[in-house]
Amino acid sequence: MSSGDDFTKITVGKFSVGIVGLKAALEETEQMRFTSDEGIADYLLHVLKKKNYIPPKSEPEHARAFLREYKKFRGESFEVDEPQGVEVKILGPGCPNCEKLEQMVYKVMADSNIAGDVEHVRDMAEIANYGIVPTPALVINGEIKTCGRLPRESQLRKWLKQEA
Q1: Which pTM does this prediction carry?
Q2: Where are the domains positioned within the chain?
Q3: CATH number of 86-163
Q4: Nearest CA to 21 among 29, 31, 33?
């Protein structure tokens, strides 16, 4: 990735993925004057495949996600994909307890067959937006469950099952 490439996190199907060059592709597409959503989606897929690995089986989902991002970019109405599973955020700079909490979350989700998206937020400015000071912190579906300590695995399992 060159220093001029932007990186944007978007939802494709039920997964969060990072896309390189999305902003530039959206700006370029706006100048093309497409008349159909299908044309826009196909063009964005074609352009973005050059800088991003997109598995052939997931191309239709990526094309829909790119079209949604284009409509957001233009301020047009768009269909929102229903989130699938739980959204989990581990807040912490990467200390041993933060890493341990992340591994606990993955283990409990796998053992309990819970689908979801796990993100470890390490940026202190973004962590500060949650209004917490002690780390690690655990956020499930937007709700802070704990901060400054590791929960018991049984408590973590209970929270995740409640939210799944």
Answers
A1: 0.54
A2: 7-74, 86-163
A3: 3.40.30.10
A4: 29
CB proximity list for 28: less than 8 A, separation 6 or greater: 47
Taking only the tens of pLDDT, the chain with its 164 residues reads 444 568 888 888 767 778 999 999 999 999 998 999 999 999 999 999 999 988 888 899 999 999 999 999 999 988 776 556 788 999 999 899 999 999 999 889 888 878 778 889 999 988 998 888 899 999 998 999 999 999 999 999 999 999 87
* CA dist., res. 149 & res. 8, Å (int): 31
Decide the pairing of beta strands 15-20 and 7-12.
antiparallel
Give alpha helix (H) positions in 75-152: 96-111, 124-128
Provide the token pair at 40. 């826009």
Q: Give the closest residue to 137 by CA, choosing from 129, 126, 127.
A: 127
Give me 121's structure tokens. 């937020």
| Inter-residue contact 115 to 164 (CB < 8 Å) | yes
Burial (Cβ within 10 Å: 0-12, 13-18, ≥19) of residue 36: exposed
Q: Which two tokens stand for residue 114?
A: 């819970």
